[in-house]
Amino acid sequence: MPSDAVPPDRVPERLRYHPLRVRRIVEETPEARSLVFEVPSGLAGAFAYEAGQFVTIRVARQGRTHLRSYSMSSAPEVDGELRVTVKRVPGGLVSNWLNDAVGEGDVLDVARPGGSFVLDRGGHDIVAFAAGSGITPVFSILKTALATTGRRVRLLYANRAREAAIFGDELDALAGRHPDRLAVEHHEDLARGFVDRGTVARHAAGAGDAAFYICGPDGFMDVAEAGLRDLGVGQDRIRIERFTPAEQPATGPADGIEVTVKLGGKTATVAHRHNATLLQTARSAGLRAPSSCEAGTCATCMARVVQGRAVMRNNEALTPDEVDEGWVLTCQAVPASPVVEVVYE
Ligand SMILES: Cc1cc2nc3c(=O)[nH]c(=O)nc-3n(C[C@H](O)[C@H](O)[C@H](O)COP(=O)(O)OP(=O)(O)OC[C@H]3O[C@@H](n4cnc5c(N)ncnc54)[C@H](O)[C@@H]3O)c2cc1C
Ligand code: FES
């Protein structure tokens, strides 16, 4: 049974935040800017990344700590730098602060890259669907695919209007340099309405056994996924990155399981409600447990089970060794024993 006192050298590297200086800022559109980070040589290994991955930034605002993930819009093989691109969310705390208040030379706390929305190793064509800020990991992936493989890529890129399209000009220039390998179709919602299944089917027509990538607002991703299903595309060929947590199922009545949560010097013991994850349980106990994707990919919510057992519905972030040590993604973990104790580091 793991003890709840994790020695500092056993705390996974992914939970450590490193101060990185903002070397350069690029205003991409009135609603989005890119931050290029300076990675010291001593951290080059920790901050090596694959196209499509993200980093998590820790920000102290309004007396609280907030963790937000941002995908790299740079591609390691092409750009030689680590750049994230942040689009404003109306009313959003961190995205607007990163757009308004952060300047070149400022230092932000950043955790090492992670994520499984990366270029597959297959040799098939790539068909991508992106909307809004969802272009960031897709842009990274398609740049790497063009630079390191001979694969053909087609992208359907939806925005309210063309001038809101982040990297719109860069994408068109890239397509100009790779006329036989990259096709970019800009979809303007104001002119054509939201992307529907018919648009998805037209974009994917004749794609054969392509690999499909989808990233954008929930409604857009649902339509793209449904459109591909209509065409008989199997789930194993579709890769999706969610920026906002998927709908959580409603939690049920108490089921006799007792959960103790330790976080930031506080301890709470509560009755578990059927179906609730450990993250939901921690929140129901009044604790401000960290999270970002709530989909099992970012590891922001990881904590250690020190008594009892919990099983994860999805784990795309933790290594087998971390799981053996008792770490769980609390957004995905549900109790599997009558008593569970979980400790956030
Ligand atoms: C793996 C991953 C990668 C991501 N990559 C990027 C990226 O490359 N660029 C980028 O701009 N963002 C990205 N995000 C989203 C980012 O982490 C934040 O969620 C986003 O910036 C909003 O944070 P906020 O503090 O401004 O908003 P909050 O203050 O957290 O939220 C304000 C309101 O907006 C809603 N909301 C939150 N996020 C979004 C969203 N993305 N779209 C619409 N409504 C939202 C919330 O439900 C809430 O109602 C990514 C998220 C994940 C999980
Ligand atoms: S919040 Fe991202 S894995 Fe749990």
Notable traits:
FAD, Rossmann fold, alpha/beta, Ubiquitin-like (UB roll), metal-binding, Elongation Factor Tu (Ef-tu), domain 3, binds FE2/S2 (inorganic) cluster, five-stranded parallel sheet, MRET, oxidoreductase, 345 residues, binds flavin-adenine dinucleotide
How many structural domains in the coordinates?
Answer: 3
Taking strands numbered 1, 2, ... along the chain, how are they ordered across the largest sheet? Answer: 4-3-6-1-2-5
Largest β-sheet summary: 6 strands, antiparallel
**Number of helical elements:** 9
Query: What's the β-strand tally?
Result: 18
| CATH H level, superfamily name of the largest domain | Nucleotide-binding domain of ferredoxin-NADP reductase (FNR) module
Can you list the ligands bound to this structure? flavin-adenine dinucleotide, FE2/S2 (inorganic) cluster
User: Class of the largest domain in CATH?
Assistant: Alpha Beta
Q: Uncertain regions: pLDDT < 50 for 5+ in a row?
A: none
Based on CA inertia axes, which overall geometry fits? globular
Give a brief outline of the structure.
This protein has 345 residues and is of the alpha/beta class. The protein has helices at 76-79, 93-100, 135-148, 168-177, 189-192, 197-204, 218-230, 278-284, 320-324; strands spanning 17-29, 32-38, 54-61, 64-71, 82-87, 107-114, 126-131, 153-159, 182-188, 211-215, 238-241, 254-263, 266-273, 302-307, 310-312, 327-329, 333-335, 339-343.
